[in-house]
Amino acid sequence: MDEETSKPLTRTLRQHLARLYFGRDTAAIRFQFTLMVIDIAIIGFFLAGPYLRDRPSYLILDYTIAAWIALELVAQWSASWSTRRFLMRPMTWVDIFVLGTLLFPQWLFNFAFLRVARIWAVAQRPIFKLMLKRMGLKEQTDVVTAFINLFVFLFLVTGFVYSFFFYREDAGTGFIDALYFTVATVTTTGFGDITLPGTFGKLTSIVTMIIGISLFVRLAQAIVRPYKVTFPCPECGLQRHDADAVHCKACGHILNIPDDGE
Fold this sequence. Notes:
The protein is mainly alpha-helical. About 65% of the residues lie in helices and about 0% in strands.
């Protein structure tokens, strides 16, 4: 195959992948839904990691998921029209790091807790917002997003605490203790029956409390705050407006927000 023939084929493949990843037709929706189901299954494997790590099948599943993430990274890069834009996506670097922990589990196992960040990949897929809309939960998008952020943070900290403080304990008991400590710290309940030793442990507790409280406040704000749509004002660029707004609150410019808020 000569170079002139390969260029149109490459362009066609990129267009096809872009349509599947970002399109709204039936084939694209089915493709995105399949990816989301696979993401959820992978996240389940990550969360069950402490209980599965001593089983012979663990490494097989580990490398299978690594191959899948590598394949999807290549596909996402192909679907993106700009390599720079692809590399600037936070999830790109999260996936690259997760891939490293999967390929080299013996050396990077202490950083395996970062794998749970792939939950964000589910929330960032176009199919996620489309499903919320079809389920009648479009007005709760901010609430769901805030809840996901809090959920991811809880399990990130749990994984961090487990990896650095409870790793030598029984897998089940150590993980539950780490989760218990994280929830008690984030909620500032502070029972004190499980604490982290040393200066590093105290610093971990301080950071967990500060960020955890911030995410709780963000979730509370999302619950009580009136629903707003994303619609940039043509005059001043204000992004968020009430769903029934006629004028921009910042500059008074007349708005023409579509009924579906898109």
